[in-house]
Amino acid sequence: xxxxxxxxxxxxxxxxxxxxxxxxxxxxxxxxxxxxxxxxxxxxxxxxxxxxxxxxxxxxxxxxxxxxxxxxxxxx
Length: 76
Prior knowledge:
The protein is mainly alpha-helical. The protein is 51% helix and 7% strand. The chain is built from three helices and two strands. A two-stranded antiparallel ribbon has the order 1-2. β1 (2-4) and β2 form a beta hairpin. The protein is globular, with a radius of gyration of 13 Å. 17% of the residues are buried.
């Protein structure tokens, strides 16, 4: 996945946006990286605006569903 000009993959995106390796991302940082897709040139993970904040919150809640209830709860 391209997260910006010349930024390919989550490792590069984590380094560029947050200065940490992907394995060290917080849940909120990972949610924000996911939230800016599919328009990483339009939205920012490191300094999110209202849309990215709202979207990353929904992503975090959905991830919580997977952890609590399993994948079957997320797939119809």
